[in-house]
Amino acid sequence: MRNGPRKPLPFNDIRHLQAHQFLVDEAYLLDTQDYGTWLDTLTDDIRYVMPVRVTTARGSGFDMSPGMAHFDEDKYSLTQRVARFRTEHAWTEDPPSRLRHFITNVRTFPGDDDRHLIVQSAELLFRSRGDVNESALLSCGREDVLRWDDDAQTWKLARRNIIADESVLRMQNLAVFL
User: Fold this and answer.
1) CATH (domain of 60)
2) What is the residue range of 154's domain?
3) Is 177 a domain residue?
4) Are 108 and 117 in contact (CB under 8 A)?
5) I need a labelling partner for 153 at 20 to 30 A (CA). Which of 3, 22, 55, 130 fits?
6) Is residue 132 in a domain?
7) Distance between CA atoms of 44 and 99, rounded to whole angstroms?
8) Model confidence pLDDT, tens digit, residues 26-77
9) What is the pLDDT of residues 89-119, one digit of tens each?
């Protein structure tokens, strides 16, 4: 975590409750594939990253492949990906996946100022497609930065760093959002 370890907010802190509510509401939007509404929960300068995980010897000092990511996206690329789902060219999601995002182990930390929160969570994604393919699970940890939006009077996602728990992903593709 940035700036060294910090003490998490207590579970009854209003900021923790709001951050947890944000993640639950976001999971619902992703499960129902309401991607237009989901895009509205992102800041205009969002950074959405999933580095490639590698297996290395203990003490090597890294477990991510430097400079490589499954995706490293901004608001424009996320918006384009959502727009593509609405076309006949989205064969990776036709028929659409059946999704369930399980979010747990939510810990919230104060940000660098009152307008930011750092939120750690664990996610388990269940995904099935069609009638023939086997279902798939993807487990990951996430570190988010939420930013307060004064105009909307709500928290928005400004950064998401997703760390998969396996170095070889067993899903056919990563066309869905985590």
Assistant:
1) 3.10.450.50
2) 14-164
3) no
4) yes
5) 3
6) yes
7) 26
8) 999 999 999 999 999 999 999 999 998 876 667 666 566 677 788 999 999 9
9) 766 677 788 999 999 999 999 999 999 999 9
- Whose CA is closest to 128, among 136, 140, 139, 120? 136
Q: How far apart are CA 108 and CA 126, in angstroms?
A: 24
Q: Give the span between the Cα atoms of 7 and 114, in whole angstroms.
A: 16
What distance, in Å, lies between the first and last C-alpha atoms of the chain?
19
Q: How far apart are CA 152 and CA 112, in angstroms?
A: 21
Asked whether residue 57 is domain-assigned, the answer is: yes
Cα 2 to Cα 119: distance, rounded to the nearest angstrom: 12
- Beta strands 116-128; 42-53: pairing state: unpaired
- DSSP codes of every residue in the chain: -TTS--PPPPTTSHHHHHHHHHHHHHHHHHHTT-HHHHHTTEEEEEEEEEEEE----TTSS--EEEEEEEEEE-HHHHHHHHHHHTSTT-GGGSSPPEEEEEEEEEEEEE-SSTTEEEEEEEEEEEEE-TTTSPPEEEEEEEEEEEEEETTTTEEEEEEEEEEESSSS--SS---S--
Rounded to the nearest angstrom, the gap between the alpha carbon of residue 75 and the centroid of all alpha carbons in its chain is 14
pLDDT at 1 over 50: no
How many distinct structural domains can be found in the chain? 1
